[in-house]
Amino acid sequence: MIGISTETTNESMIDIETLWGKFWGENSADKIPNKASDEIYAVYTDYQSDYTGKYTLIIGFPVTTFDNIPDGFVERNISVDLNVKYISKGKMPEAILKTWTEIGQDTQLNRAYRADVTIHGQKYYHRDNAEVETYISIIK
After folding, report:
1. Domains of the chain (ranges, CATH numbers)
2. Predicted confidence (pLDDT) per residue in 90-102, tens digit
3. In angstroms, how far is CA 90 from the centroid of its own chain?
């Protein structure tokens, strides 16, 4: 994937909101070449430890090649082999925040903290009936 990124923690929602604001405000979608689809990926990766530590958030698109990466963007090969899928339904971003709260409270979830991905497809734009898929990497 190619996208824009920030290093953050779960304590700082401002960093996440700022990155999404930059993504939309600077028309990042139009700057990413070689898109494999129109689905927006938000990838949580490079975890320092667990949900309490630093991690990198990348917002962008899956691509067919890393040719011509724009200045200020990053590329990353993302693989989520074993995962648990969650679906957020309703008004965004409230629905996805609710899902992340559920993920954080799930004591049975054996998270791998490698790469977690939210996919914002066509249903993301359905206002109060939006849907976003979240894939959490796990250890078997």
Report:
1. 2-137 (3.20.80.10)
2. 999 999 999 999 9
3. 18
